[in-house]
Amino acid sequence: MPIVESVGRFPAQTGVASQPAAPDHHVAEVLDKANRRSQTYGVSVHEEPDYTSPSRGHMSRAKDENRFLFQHAAPIMETLYGQIANTHSMVLLTSAQGMVLHSLGDNDFLEKASRVALVPGTDWSEKTKGTNAIGTALSEEEAITVHGNQHYMSANQSLTCSCSPIFDPHGQVIGALDVTGDHRSYHQHTLALVRMSAQLIENHMFAGSFPKAVRLHFHSRPEFLGTLVEGIAVFSPEGRFISANRSAQFQLGLSHHALQAHTFSSLFNLPISALFELFSGSASIPRQLGMHNGVSVWCRTEIKPAGPWSHPSLAPVEQEGGATPSSARTATPTQSRCKPHLSSLQYLDTGDAQIKSVIQKLRRIVDRDIPVMILGETGTGKDLLAQAIHNDSARARMPFVAVNCASIPETLIEAELFGYEEGAFTGARKKGAIGKIVQADGGTLFLDEIGDMPRHLQARLLRVLQERKVSPLGARKDVEVDVTVVCATHKNIREMISRGEFREDLYYRLNGLVVRLPALRERTDFEVVVKKVLKSLCEGEPHITISSDVMTLLASYHWPGNLRQLHNLLRTAVVMVDTDGVIDAEHLPDDFLEELSIANNAPLAVEASVIASAPVAIANSEDVFSDGVRLQDVTLNTMAQMLRIHRGNVSAAAKALGVSRNTIYRKKNLLPPDLLN
Known about the structure:
Elements: H1 25-41, H2 56-65, H3 67-84, E1 89-95, E2 100-105, H4 107-115, H5 126-129, H6 133-140, E3 144-147, E4 159-167, E5 173-182, H7 190-208, E6 214-219, E7 231-235, E8 241-244, H8 246-252, H9 256-259, H10 264-268, H11 272-278, E9 287-290, E10 296-303, H12 344-348, H13 353-365, E11 372-375, H14 382-391, E12 400-404, H15 410-418, H16 436-439, E13 444-448, H17 455-467, E14 469-470, E15 479-480, E16 484-489, H18 493-498, H19 504-510, E17 513-516, H20 526-538, E18 545-546, H21 548-556, H22 562-576, E19 582-583, H23 590-600, H24 608-613, H25 616-619, H26 622-625, H27 631-645, H28 650-657, H29 661-666
Parallel strand pairs: 11-16, 11-17, 12-13, 13-16, 18-19
Antiparallel strand pairs: 1-2, 1-5, 3-4, 4-5, 6-7, 6-10, 7-8, 9-10, 14-15
Helix pairs in contact: 3-7, 20-22, 27-28
């Protein structure tokens, strides 16, 4: 994937290198501020570089913490290095704190790089190296070139460095990309190349995030859709703004922070339901939308399911008077106001009496400012129910913020929940961070696995619920908030109270209404749930169904992972299913089939399609059907015998068994090696 086509590859430096122009007023101001910070940090101009190598454990932890960044950056670093090879330069990737994580460089420059500590593990923040491209770019959160004697430390003045910060999908600095070389090899295009490479990394990270959101790709010129410069913005199915890449922020004329106060409707002058209708035919055909600033843009959209099954809000919404958004290229805000879509709670009501009872209770307290506590095993859909409560409330167009108290390290949960001001603690981000509670202002705060919240934070949460105020870490004044709280847990909170692990006063503040979700094995609507999950996974392939034998097998299983396990199993089966569009036993994971066999302590008829198609002599074999033989062994024996009959011809054996060739190849490692041609 080329990074830039207009710049091309750098020429080899065979003559006198181009010299940088005098820095403009803004760059001069940035460098001056950096120098003043360097003095404040106590960095010595004549200090020798730090040659201390970090411990192996320290470096390993840093790489683990930055794995997401590295996975997306490494391929682009390779491409970038291909653009600058033979220019006495190297490419560096750093953490948000300025630690070098990875480097690629010319052999002739590597020795010099080691002399100035340009190696993985080295800290290039301003606090240790003074003014330099990496540290200054991270401090100022903007791309910059620091050339020659612009470096604060004299030991680094033989270098020329161009660096751009890298922002994560939530608008926070996650690291930096840098090209450093001999100051005599300066090239005026380096910074532009680094900028575009950093943006490409951001877009790659962005594309893999927010899988359940509505993603809008847009640009004022249709030919730029799908390119590096397209704007990408993501919204919840209800239209709440979630995030936007740098190009989107530029086109919208708003910073990431300012966009947090907006919705799709306020940015594009029409309800998000009209967007679903506009692209109901084909999401691949660009359409025109008008932005809040009067600029018209071309756009494409990607709409994903909001959970284990599709969210009703993703369906086209009929408008009052039967009007629908125009199929013309331009959508206008003159359309009539949409009817609210079907209740999300109604959507979750699939016929089970226990679920119906839960939904009836919840409908009575919606918009009554009564906190809800959802109990149930892991994977029973507590998060789906919390989202449904929000969607049915008057707060539906405001934020729904979910916090999994079990997934956030204990040392970070306070900062995540309550936010913090700049300098509140070591490693705090510049300009601080807004806590989840404040993000949920006006909407709903979902505290999943509330039983895992550290006890010392429970008192702070109780104060927030009572006083409706949040005190961010390091802040001098409280922030007023208006949130509805929904919490969930699989633990027995009463037992935790008796052991002193959970505050009793907080429990009684949270349990305005307690509901319990049944485990999947306890539900009477199992088949309806399976079909609904399957429908959401097919993505335009409604022909995929489940055989009656497999449905019987699924219904007999105990489902310890509940809806989450069912969703993952069916997702695999949908991928494995052949063109006939029927999920049979052969499409289910082997470990699932083995677990069924062990649970029933007998060979199951789950591979009936395989065994029934085998010759009678094999089907009547005592070895195949003897008591206690595992299903796995039954399958392998049948396949092996059929391969022997057909002299290792996989296609012929597969045809005789009534399965695909891939079914046999998936078990290749378990079959005798001499059987396959």
